[in-house]
Amino acid sequence: MLAIWLLLPFIGFSQIKNVINTTRIFPKQEKIAEFEKALAAHAQKYHTGDWKWRVWYIESGPDAGGYMVTEGPNSWETLDGRKDLGAEHTADWVSNVAPLTQDRGDASYAEYQADLSTVQLTDYSDKIIINHTIVRPGKINAVQEILKKLKNAWQAGGVSVAVYQAMASGEPSFIIVTRLKGGLKELATGYRKPLKDLFDTANGAGSFDQYQKDYGDAVEKRWSELLVLRPELGSK
Questions:
Q1: Domain range for 27
Q2: Which terminus of the chain has a smaller tally of CB atoms within 10 A, N or C?
Q3: Backbone angles phi, psi at 192, to 5 degrees
Q4: Quick one: CA dihedral 90, 95, 97, 103, positive or negative?
């Protein structure tokens, strides 16, 4: 019994479900209807439980017209056993979905950062804005400190934000997901106070000016996009 109690902290740590794996798929323009039908059939037959799919349509940005599939949250230990979900699953994808797609795509992993977020990992919304923030070399800690101050501002403005850190997926980056609980009207001027006002209120007068300097020093580049959930295309 003593040995079991001593192991409990390690067991609990190893099973933290905070990892999202994401795939971006781009259908052939003349095959969109067929692609959506095949994607939905594949998701609903083969992707259940830990491998359940949420499917998003990418409305804007450089990947506009594509679809983003998210799986998780899972632990890294669970992902170790994922493999290819079986020969039948793979055959269905290769035969029925892949021929309807373009020769481009993307796959990535990211860990949810609870201490930088203002919303729980699974407290979702149907419309989101993703800001992809690419970090300069050696500036990960600096960006984390910036995000802590941004969190204060988001909380002051009632903004629902989930922050993820990319893991083994390209350039070092943070994925900042604003969940538009109120819909697109949250983007309207006047819906909430400007970020500068919220930032100065939450972090002290004049802090926004310093934030801009710190941001410019630590962030290589940033790009954003709007996505809308397509529940009929995902798992049931």
A1: 13-111+228-233
A2: N
A3: -140, 170
A4: positive
